[in-house]
Amino acid sequence: VLWSLTLAVFSIFGAMRTGSYMTYILMTKGLKQSVCDQSFYNGPVSKFWAYAFVLSKAPELGDTLFIVLRKQKLIFLHWYHHITVLLYSWYSYKDMVAGGGWFMTMNYLVHAVMYSYYALRAAGFKVSRKFAMFITLTQIT
């Protein structure tokens, strides 16, 4: 429960901070600027949350470790998602890829929902199977 709850809270704050910055850029400078500019990596708050995002990809591999230790089935989508997001995140941060702000915001948001779901399940709450399918759908889109 603690693992998922910690990642949920971290992701919620990350989504709020990056989302508010990206919304500000979108509203004040337009869509093109929000997608095609690297300013996300330079603002003091957004720079911190971009760095935290990149660093968080390594601990998120703990999910994979837990699956293996519990001797559960490790599906292709799980490890593919973790490896590709980890590599793309490191690459895009290093090269300050334009559009990275939206990528980070969306990933933070999906992870906020996903880890909240995991925390609820680990705490013994019943959550709809359809909701789990919705989370998987958001991860692959």
From TrEMBL:
Belongs to the ELO family. It catalyses: a very-long-chain acyl-CoA + malonyl-CoA + H(+) = a very-long-chain 3-oxoacyl-CoA + CO2 + CoA. It is an enzyme of class 2 (transferase). Keywords: Fatty acid biosynthesis, Fatty acid metabolism, Lipid biosynthesis, Lipid metabolism, Membrane, Transferase, Transmembrane, Transmembrane helix. Pfam families: ELO (PF01151). The keyword Lipid metabolism applies. GO terms for molecular function: fatty acid elongase activity. It comes from the Eukaryota. GO terms for cellular component: endoplasmic reticulum membrane. It is a multi-pass membrane protein. This is Elongation of very long chain fatty acids protein. The chain crosses the membrane at residues 6-27, 74-93, 99-120. It is found in: Membrane. PROSITE patterns: ELO. Its EC number is 2.3.1.199. GO terms for biological process: fatty acid elongation, monounsaturated fatty acid; fatty acid elongation, polyunsaturated fatty acid; fatty acid elongation, saturated fatty acid; sphingolipid biosynthetic process; very long-chain fatty acid biosynthetic process. The keyword 4Fe-4S does not apply.
